[in-house]
Design brief:
By secondary structure, the chain is an all-alpha fold. The longest helix is centred in the first third of the chain and has 20 residues.
Length: 132
């Protein structure tokens, strides 16, 4: 009986000691402050092969504003906007997302074909390339 009591007392004591030392978890639960990390930035120097200061005016200050952009007045012309609206297709929505790959229209500058002769003389009467 004494042996069972001794084993039970030791087990209870170890359990209580473990619980007492487990109370020191406040350090682990602290939120991490990312601003405490020091970042070492490498200084990158770009060698252009010539001295750029020779091409700048005397007394040039890159931080001085030489032109006041707020002094420029912008004029909105309604004529240009009406011209654009008149030449858009009916139901045009600039913000519509394409539904599939076939609905994307890619305009290439090289697609314009300039033929040096009149092709209508070589086509049948009433020919329409866009009819089905």
């Amino acid at each position: 009986m004494k042996k069972k009591t001794l084993i039970l007392s030791l087990a209870s004591g170890l359990f209580l000691a473990n619980a007492a030392f487990a109370n020191g978890t406040e350090e682990k639960g602290k939120p991490f402050d990312i601003s405490t990390i020091e970042y070492i930035e490498d200084e990158v120097t770009i060698d252009l092969g010539f001295d750029t200061s020779e091409y700048l005016p005397e007394g040039f200050d890159p931080y001085k504003m030489y032109v006041n952009l707020n002094a420029i007045e912008f004029i909105e012309e309604e004529v240009a906007l009406q011209y654009v609206k008149a030449n858009l297709p009916e139901g045009f929505d600039a913000y519509a997302a394409p539904t599939d790959v076939q609905s994307i229209n890619y305009i290439d500058v090289n697609d314009t074909l300039n033929v040096d002769f009149d092709t209508t003389a070589h086509l049948p009467e009433g020919f329409n390339a866009f009819s089905k």
